[in-house]
Automatic annotation (TrEMBL):
Domain of life: Bacteria
The UniProt record lists the keyword Acyltransferase: yes
Coiled coil: none
Protein name: Acetyltransferase (GNAT) family protein
Key words, A-Z: Acyltransferase, Transferase
Keyword Acyltransferase appears in the UniProt entry: yes
Gene Ontology MF term list: acyltransferase activity, transferring groups other than amino-acyl groups
Length: 146
């Protein structure tokens, strides 16, 4: 049975491992100070939020999210990162994490929850196509950093 809840101090090592797996999937390695910053933000729960999925007491999935204003609706919730351990995939952790974020956002009056994924991420998209609408939007970026 999958259970969803806030991360605790005791989850730090398992969360870091899952977050590293997520970043590896997208071909990046985060600097330790960014990992530390994210953990501090999640622990304070003011600007950025995180939940974990547990299977038999073990942290097997994570989701990171935050709200932002919108010019056309009430605030919206952006689901930025979602990752489950390979051994837990197909057991409902991803779906449960998405549902938990939607419930959290609904309780705070958000108009919607949205996220991005690569078009080639067919495994995740099978789930996403079941729980959300594909609005057919493309993402453009202007990198501003070094």
């Amino acid at each position: 049975m999958i259970s969803i809840g806030r991360l605790t101090e005791d989850d730090r090592a398992a969360w870091e491992n899952l977050f590293a797996g997520y970043n590896t999937f997208y071909g990046r390695t985060l600097a330790p100070e960014l990992v530390d910053r994210a953990w501090r933000e999640f622990r304070s729960g003011e600007r950025m939020h995180a939940l974990g999925a547990r299977l038999d007491g073990e942290l097997v999935g994570i989701v990171h999210f935050f709200t932002h204003v919108s010019t056309t609706s009430a605030d919206v919730c952006y689901l930025q990162d979602l990752f489950t351990d390979a051994k837990a995939r197909g057991r409902g952790a991803g779906r449960a994490l998405i549902e938990a974020v939607a419930g959290w956002a609904r309780a705070r009056g958000c108009a919607r929850v949205y996220w991005h994924t690569q078009t080639s991420n067919t495994t995740a998209r099978r789930l996403y196509d079941q729980v959300a609408l594909d609005k057919g939007l493309m993402q453009y970026q202007i990198p501003l950093g070094p």
